[in-house]
Write a sequence for this structure.
């Protein structure tokens, strides 16, 4: 059965993936930017379903990127995925968005790559980052990854200075924002591909692993409720 995949950790991306071990892409949409998630997601979902000639009731699952990412955009994607899956009575599987970038890097950048460091924009002059190696023993049609260092928020200077980049391929959109500290191959992946998220999720489900949809915010929202006024006393 087809699987619908969403990711709002970088751009707003929606992909419909078909059956089969390689989970072929049936239709995809991407809007570059970090605004208007709630407004754009529903039409994008409708467009990919229509292009592929698939009724939403035919979906077998929903996959969603869990970040890390800023609060508002990530929350919109997670809520949309959970709501759609609940309405259709199908499972929803979450995958760390950085995992997808790492998996694509291993798949496309050659067998000589032993470890990958993913860096994406965390704003405030910081990056989200995690380090990966290829997972051994997975299905031959899917490149799987495992985390060597869990997702964190760092400044590019600290990341480049503490040895985290040694002997690793650096990928992700963060390299384009901070070229004075980070470098990457021009053809390496920059943003998560929802199709790769799906392949990772399905491989993990096949092994009996749970794939929760808890968000990876890694820090507090940029906007927080104002504190209540202090009560004046006479």
């Amino acid at each position: 059965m087809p699987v619908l995949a969403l990711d709002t950790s970088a751009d707003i991306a929606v992909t419909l993936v078909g059956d089969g071990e390689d989970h072929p892409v049936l239709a995809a949409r991407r809007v570059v930017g970090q605004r208007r998630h709630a407004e754009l997601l529903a039409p994008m979902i409708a467009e990919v379903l229509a292009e592929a000639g698939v009724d939403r009731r035919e979906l077998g699952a929903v996959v969603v990127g869990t970040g890390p990412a800023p609060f508002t955009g990530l929350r919109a994607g997670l809520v949309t995925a959970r709501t759609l899956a609940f309405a259709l009575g199908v499972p929803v599987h979450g995958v760390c968005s950085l995992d997808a970038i790492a998996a694509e890097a291993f798949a496309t950048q050659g067998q000589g790559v032993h470890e990958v460091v993913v860096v994406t924009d965390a704003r405030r002059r910081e990056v989200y980052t995690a380090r990966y190696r290829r997972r051994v023993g997975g299905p031959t049609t899917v490149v799987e990854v495992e985390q060597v260092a869990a997702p964190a928020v760092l400044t590019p200077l600290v990341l480049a200075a503490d040895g985290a980049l040694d002997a690793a391929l650096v990928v992700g959109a963060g390299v384009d924002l901070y070229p004075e500290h980070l470098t990457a191959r021009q053809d390496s992946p920059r943003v998560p591909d929802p199709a790769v998220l799906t392949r990772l999720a399905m491989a993990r489900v096949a092994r009996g692993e749970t794939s929760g949809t808890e968000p990876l915010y890694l820090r507090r929202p940029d906007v927080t409720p104002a504190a209540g006024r202090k009560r004046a006393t006479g």
Notes: The two ends are 69 Å apart (CA to CA). The longest helix spans residues 71-88. Confidence is low (pLDDT under 50) at residues 222-234.
